[in-house]
From TrEMBL:
Its EC number is 4.1.1.17. GO terms for cellular component: cytoplasm. GO terms for molecular function: ornithine decarboxylase activity. The keyword Lyase applies. This is ornithine decarboxylase. PANTHER family: ARGININE/DIAMINOPIMELATE/ORNITHINE DECARBOXYLASE, ORNITHINE DECARBOXYLASE 1-RELATED. Keywords: Lyase, Pyridoxal phosphate. It comes from Hansschlegelia beijingensis. Pathway: Amine and polyamine biosynthesis; putrescine biosynthesis via L-ornithine pathway; putrescine from L-ornithine: step 1/1.
Length: 385
């Protein structure tokens, strides 16, 4: 079936889809967009090292490209560490950024040469001491996720007041107390969101200094947004705001910094082509809302529609014509597999069964969130071009 979305996507993605014979939903990632995003981060934060958050999209081609561009990697597991190493990047370009690690995984990372680990409590420090002696650790602190469309819970990080104790504990145990990290919440629309966390970080640096510990690094985390339906500030605005906050809180003793962009690196590089499986109504009443069922839903890769948090732009070949609100749902026999219902999604009234749609900004947090065979549906197919 040919795609009827000729005016949509970018040229490269359009051409790829036009040639394709895919029978199911497919993600196409344009590596040129990833390349441009990396350049934007490098330009906006010139003194900051980039550790790409592998979990956002671990496709080997994306990792290889980023490695060639000079990126380092923030990994959440030994499997992700192996994916990063497979690019040819050396282990000193890898951070084991998950604060919740099995001790044997710490040992496995150490055996592979990884020497940089996240912690947020004394118990985790002791695992690192035993399994990765002498390694560098940074302490993650809780940050207020206000302004983020995909806020993070209290699962990761300790109260800022506890961080100096955790870092001192690391020092006493023969580890290198290296710095502080935080994450201001994913899809963070407020360019000023880093300020409060940097104030806390600077206070931890001072407290550690009083205890005779010289910290080196602040890990600014991820949170840089992708454009979905609404415009987001440019990466340059984030860079300027972060630099201003660093100057305000650290004066002329600005520490080494790293960022861990995930969504901001790959989100807008990916398009999912999907198909309308069914358009129907639940009654014959005049004002009854249409239900539109796609061949992709929450279990096929669009998990971030949970609580309708992320609203993807959806393009159709009927765009420009009259629209009406729809409930948008996925194809599985699970009643949770509804994408947008509380806030119905406007789609063209002429949209019909068999039409293809193009879902934009799907490069991050889609393939890895797709179930392996829930209801017998294959995991989301993915191509990096
Ligand atoms: C997920 C994650 C990131 C990436 O976050 P984005 O909002 O996608 O940029 C960065 N750092 C850590 C520790 C993470 O867990």
């Amino acid at each position: 079936m040919t795609s009827h979305l000729d005016a949509l996507g970018n040229d490269r993605v359009r051409r790829f889809l036009a040639e394709g014979q895919s029978d199911g939903p497919v993600l196409v990632v344009d590596s040129e967009v990833v390349r441009a995003n990396y350049a934007k981060f490098a330009h906006a934060l010139p003194d900051t090292r980039v550790f790409y958050a592998v979990k956002a999209n671990p496709d080997p081609k994306i990792l290889k490209l980023l490695a060639e561009l000079g990126s380092c990697f923030d990994c959440a597991s030994v499997a992700e560490i192996d994916m990063a190493l497979a690019t040819g990047a050396s282990a000193d370009r890898i951070s084991f950024g998950n604060t919740i690690k099995k001790e044997r995984d710490v040992a496995a990372a150490y055996a592979r040469g990884v020497r940089l680990f996240a912690v947020d409590c004394r118990e985790e420090v002791e695992k690192i001491e035993r399994a990765a002696p002498g390694a560098k650790v940074f302490c993650r602190i809780l940050a207020d996720g206000a302004g983020a469309e995909w806020p993070l819970s209290r699962k990761f990080g300790c109260a800022p007041e506890m961080a100096a104790d955790v870092l001192e504990h690391a020092h006493v145990r023969g580890l290198i107390a290296y710095g502080v990290s935080f994450h201001v919440g994913s899809q963070q629309n407020n360019v000023g969101a880093w300020d409060a966390a940097l104030a806390s970080a600077a206070e931890i640096f001072r407290e550690c200094e009083r205890r005779g510990l010289a910290l080196s690094m602040v890990n600014l985390g991820g949170g840089f947004p992708t454009r979905y339906l609404r415009d987001v500030p440019a990466v340059e605005a984030y860079g300027a705001s972060i630099f201003e906050a660093l100057r305000a809180h650290f004066g002329n003793r600005i520490p080494e910094t790293i960022i861990e962009p995930g969504r901001g690196m790959v989100g807008d590089a990916g398009w999912i082509e999907a198909e309308v499986v069914l358009v129907s109504k639940k009654s014959d009443a005049e004002d009854e809302i249409r239900w539109v069922y796609l061949d992709i839903g929450k279990f096929g890769g669009l998990a971030e529609t949970m609580d309708e948090a992320i609203r993807y732009p959806i393009r159709t070949a009927h765009d420009g014509g009259a629209t009406a609100p729809c409930v948008l749902a996925g194809p599985t026999c699970d009643s949770a597999d509804v994408l947008y219902e509380k806030t119905p999604y406007p789609l063209p009234v002429s949209l019909s069964i068999g039409d293809k749609v193009l879902i934009e900004a799907c490069g991050a947090y889609t393939t890895t969130y797709a179930a392996v065979a829930f209801n017998g549906f294959l995991p989301l197919a993915s191509h990096v071009i």
